[in-house]
Design a protein that fits this description.
This protein is mainly beta. It has a single domain, classed as Methanol Dehydrogenase, Chain A. The protein has helices spanning 7-15, 170-176, 290-295; strands at residues 25-26, 38-40, 50-51, 68-70, 79-83, 88-93, 99-104, 128-130, 135-142, 149-156, 168-169, 193-195, 198-203, 216-221, 227-232, 247-248, 253-256, 272-275, 281-287, 306-309, 317-322, 327-332, 338-340, 344-347, 358-362, 365-373, 381-389, 397-405, 413-416, 424-428, 436-440, 446-449, 464-466, 469-474, 477-482. The strands form eight sheets. Strands 1-4-5-6-7 form a five-stranded antiparallel beta sheet, with no helix packed on it. It has a five-stranded mixed beta sheet with strand order 2-29-30-31-32, with no helix packed on it.
Length: 489
């Protein structure tokens, strides 16, 4: 069985519209480096979903990250990895929730007289794990008050011990390379990424936009742990802050930035950027009305870029960007276009889009789902599915396929069978009705709704799916639901 850690194979399968095999590992946000958010389950019966009452997990601190999954070679069941805002990291038995090990990274940061809506602040972003090195990497804010610093930790998957050379102090590493980094105003809530022997961490500002932060991507060498490269917006602000953050096609990194402040000329904000593994800017797209977006605080970076492969169309490599202005931008990711107009635009939402996407193939089309206030259909505030149609010899078409109402601000994932069929969209009503819902991915038909969960789930939360269970971060715990097979052939 091939692991999801085998990046080139998985990306090739996804590009071909073939579902990836059931994993021994879910190494990062939304399962794969392109953050597809698609998981393989055979002949799932959503209506038979039940809470996993045998799973109990107790953690110290609020959980804002997507849990990760790894099953050691030869083990019958795997481990769920989760981190909290009090800097506790735990490996949980995937069946019972019992802690197999716990690691305290140090005292979390405190905001007090600083801005932000998280206090204390420790691990706010989804970590990434490397199954080949048996390592878990995560960014933590360590130290109280004005002494707090961002430190990148590497931990053993087996017992949680800190790996040699870690932690790496990120701010001093950036400054040693000639950059500017203020630990008090830079926040990492964007999921970490791995590519070509480097760990990548991205930064933006805290809620309230205090201080002269920048949108920054930092690269740390895995073998000799140290900061080796960084990219930063030239203008102040322009944060990289959405939970999905950095996506990769196995060759390059893609990020989306927010609004800059008092920029005399374009300074890196309101953009989708393609970066090399050594963080050299290779290409970018900026809407031609970027100044108005800056003025109105309508970040292009509220959602991570979504990579779309359309081999039958005239533009085989596409990218979908979604803004807080409620507009979807379809781009040619081979030539993003600079400050220009997109290949196609489509008004998606009546409110700002702040979500992570999941995607799946239906024939030659790609469906992209998100939490948004849908336009052009009767679903209103909830979950929206876009269809990207790329026919041979015709320009790609972007349209809303369906909308459904939900109460809450979770982020969706998708399950499908091995043939890439029976697509089911799962989304949670975070900070709303606290219910898990399932919808048919093609039609939007409702398939399942749970009772309210016993613990509140923070907004932007997205599930993990492994071992026929759906795991969801909630307050100081992880909730689990049993996903049941049907007897259908």
């Amino acid at each position: 069985m091939t692991r999801l850690g085998s990046i080139p194979l998985v990306l090739a399968m996804l590009a071909a519209g073939i579902a990836a095999p059931r994993p021994h590992v879910v190494p990062g946000f939304h399962a794969t480096p392109d953050h597809a958010g698609a998981f393989v389950l055979r002949h799932l019966n959503p209506a038979a979903t039940t809470p996993a009452t045998s799973f109990h997990a107790k953690l110290d601190g609020w959980v804002n990250v997507q849990p990760l999954y790894w099953r050691p070679h030869g083990a019958r069941h795997g481990r769920i990895f989760v981190a909290t805002e009090k800097n506790e990291v735990a490996a949980l038995d995937a069946r019972t929730g019992q802690a197999l090990w716990r690691r305290r990274l140090g005292p979390p940061g405190t905001r007090h007289d600083l801005c932000g809506n998280i206090d204390p602040v420790g691990v706010s972003s989804t970590p990434v794990l490397d199954p080949e090195r048996h390592a878990l990497y995560l960014d933590a804010v360590v130290g109280a008050g004005h002494q707090q610093k961002h430190e990148l930790f590497g931990l053993s998957l087996h017992d949680g011990h800190v790996l040699p050379g870690f932690p790496v102090e990120i701010g001093s590493g950036v400054r040693a390379l000639g950059g500017s980094f203020d630990d008090l105003v830079e926040q990492n809530r964007t999921a970490l990424a791995l590519l070509k022997g480097r760990i990548f961490v991205a930064f933006g500002g805290y809620s309230g936009d205090c201080g002269p932060y920048h949108g920054i991507v930092v690269g740390i060498d895995q073998s000799r742990p140290r900061v080796t490269a960084f990219w930063s917006t030239r203008a102040v602000k322009g944060g990289i802050w959405n939970p999905g953050g950095i996506v990769s096609d196995g060759k390059s990194l893609y990020v989306a930035t927010g609004n800059t402040e008092n920029a005399q000329g374009w300074g890196g904000g309101e953009a989708v950027l393609r970066l090399s593994p050594d963080l050299k800017p290779l290409d970018y797209f900026v809407p031609d009305n970027w100044r108005a977006l800056d003025t109105d605080d309508l970040d292009l970076g509220g959602v991570n870029p979504t990579l779309i492969d359309a081999p039958k169309g005239p533009t085989p490599k596409l990218l979908l960007a979604l803004g807080k202005n409620g507009v979807a931008y379809l781009l040619d990711r081979r030539h993003l276009g600079g400050i220009s107009q997109a290949l196609a635009t489509h008004p998606v939402s009546a409110d700002p889009i702040r979500s992570s996407t999941a995607k799946f193939r239906v024939g030659h089309d790609t469906m992209v789902v998100m939490n948004a206030h849908g336009l052009g259909c009767d679903g209103a505030d909830g979950v929206v599915a876009l269809r990207v149609h790329a026919a041979k010899g015709a320009a790609p078409v972007l349209q809303t396929a369906w909308c459904r109402r939900i109460d809450g601000r979770g982020a969706p994932v998708v399950t499908q069978n091995e043939k890439g069929r029976q697509q089911v969209v799962w989304i949670f009503g975070a900070e709303g009705d606290e219910r898990l819902r399932a919808f048919d991915g093609v039609s939007g038909a409702a398939l399942y709704v749970s009772d309210p969960t016993p613990a509140p789930v923070p907004h932007f939360s997205t599930p993990l799916i492994a071992e026929h269970r759906l795991y969801l971060p909630a307050k100081d715990t992880v909730l689990a639901f049993n996903l049941v097979n049907t007897a259908a052939p």
